[in-house]
User: Fold this.
Amino acid sequence: MSYGLLVLYQRHTGDHQLCEFDGPDGAREAVAERLRLERDPRYAVDNVEICALSSESLASIKVTHSRYFGGRQVDFAERSSEGGTR
Assistant:
């Protein structure tokens, strides 16, 4: 099984949005979604990282990429439509 995680991360605030992809193609699906979001103008804002991570579990990603889990969990699509992620 290949667990995939898509993370949108606001560098200045630590705010983040997570989308989990589980199953045999989870990592591949996370990468495909990252590529799609990188073309979406709602996410083309300063200081927001869009990254796809893969591992055996969310717990292991939280250890290796702990900086992505320190701030608040938010919905970047809603914040973008309100004009407030920069």
